[in-house]
Every structure is written in structure tokens, then in C-alpha cells.
Amino acid sequence: MSESRSETKGASPQERGEAAGTTHAESAGGPGGPRPEPLRFFGTTWVAHDGGYAARRAAVAVGSLAVAAGACLLLRFAYQGLTIADASPFVGGLVVVMFAVCSAIAFRKTWEGFSRRPVDRAREEALRSLKGIGFIGSLLAYFVRSLTEAPGERLRRTEYETAVGQYERRRTTRTGNPAARDKSRTRRPRR
């Protein structure tokens, strides 16, 4: 029994009978069907809104807003440092505009990530540093989204319900084990 478990652990998805490119919900299906994909900070509590889901949503909202406020305070200290260093007003304005633009881009990209999967992974990787600079925008996107649902819940719920529907259709359309079929219909009796 333990040997078969260790063999399937190291097996590739094709060896385990899974199709390449399946989602987590499709590939994790076992005897009970597909399993939901966990969300950051929520796990799988988003499925039935149990296990402290409301408290987690409140904590994510308050936490992301508090961290964003702390980050704004740190940026203010950095701007004051530029003023104390007697940097030109152009440099100070450039820093403010850079953080504002990067925060707006990070907010938009984070918000889009809650409703759809990224199409171009290379482009998302190229925007990673930009989103890092504008992390305040990402925090604000988490805050706003957590007021209505867990961030990313709608996307995961749609994918999960689709995977469950497909699993149920496959399960109900099966004809059974072909090896256990009645062989008298396919062979002629011997004489």
C-alpha cells in the first residue's frame, strides 16, 4: 500500500492519468470529485463561508488598509528626506508621480487578477517590479475587494463550479466497467 503511494507521488501528471494543463480543481479530483483551490489568507473557507470566513475577510480588510497607511507614512518620511537633502522640486515631483503611477498600475493589475487569470505570463513577470514599487495600490485593491468577498473568490468559485459540473456530467455518462459487461451478448455460445 505504501509503495503505491510513493509511486504515484513521484509520477508525472500524464502517468497519473491527468491531462496536461488542467486546473487545480480538475487535477485534484479523486473519489469525491474536484477540490476547491485555496485562496491566500482564506484556504478553502470561501466555498461554504465557514471556518471563520467573515472574521478572515474583516482581518484582510483591516490589515491591508493598516499596512497601506503605514506604507504611506514611510513614503512621507522618504519625501521629507528628499526635502531635507535639498533635492530639486523636479526630483520630488518625479518621485511622487512615479509612486502614484505605479500604485495605479498595481491596483488595476491586482484588481484584474481577482476576476481572470493572466493570459501572458511573460508580461505579468515584466510588470512585477512595477507592482512592487506601487504595492500601496495592490494593498488598496485587497482592501476594496475584501469588503464584498474574499479577493479572488468569484474567479475560483466559477472555476470550481465548472469543474464540479464537468465531473458530474462525466460521472453520469459513464457506462460502467467494460470488463464487467455481460459477455454472452458479444460471443456466440460454443457447440
Give your account of this protein's structure.
The structure is a single chain. This protein starts with a helix and ends in an 18-residue tail after the last helix. α3 runs antiparallel to α7 (135-146) and α4 (89-115) crosses α7. The protein is elongated and about 105 Å long. Residues 1-30 have low confidence and may be disordered. It has 191 residues and is mostly helical. The protein is 61% helix and 0% strand.
In short:
With 191 residues, this protein is an all-alpha fold. It contains eight helices and no strands.
Defining traits:
191 residues, disordered N terminus, elongated, 61% helix, single chain, mainly alpha, 8 helices, 0% strand
Strand content: under 5%
Number of strands: 0
**Regions with little confidence, pLDDT below 50 for 5+ residues:** 1-30
Shape: elongated
Average pLDDT score: 78
The helix content is: 55-70%
Q: In angstroms, what is the radius of gyration?
A: 26 Å
Order of helices and strands: HHHHHHHH
In terms of structural class, how would the helical and strand content be classed? Answer: mainly alpha
Number of helices: 8
Cα-to-Cα separation, first versus last residue: 45 Å
Main sheet characteristics: none
